[in-house]
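Hi R.,

Quick one: here's the DoxX family protein sequence you asked about.
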Amino acid sequence: MKKAKIIFWITTIIIFLFEGVMPALTSQTELAKEGIKHLGYPEYFGNALVVFKILGVLVLVIPQIPKNVKEWAYAGFGFDFIFASISHFSVDGVGFQSFFPLIFLVILAISYTYYHKIERYKNIAL
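And here's the predicted structure, written out as tokens:
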């Protein structure tokens, strides 16, 4: 159980840092705005994306949030990573930029798997 919690928290904190903290701190920079334009999205899309990313990571790290809300957050991040990868493949072609979101998709999948292992253990312990 201890190993499951450690793996869950390490992967979830990675998602928290890269999908919550980093976008919150850098979303209004010219580089970030240019990145959104480069992919063909309007500027307001980037702003909305940052708001939902911050809400999503808060849902993942706050233990009191109901399980079904966490499921939606995991699904939202899954879609985010998949569509980010598709956007980069479409605009930039095959390259590291296109595969980078898929690395985070794997980290998210590990977090999700271990979240459920912990929840299953809690239910058995009751």
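Residues 2-125 form one domain.

Cheers,
M.
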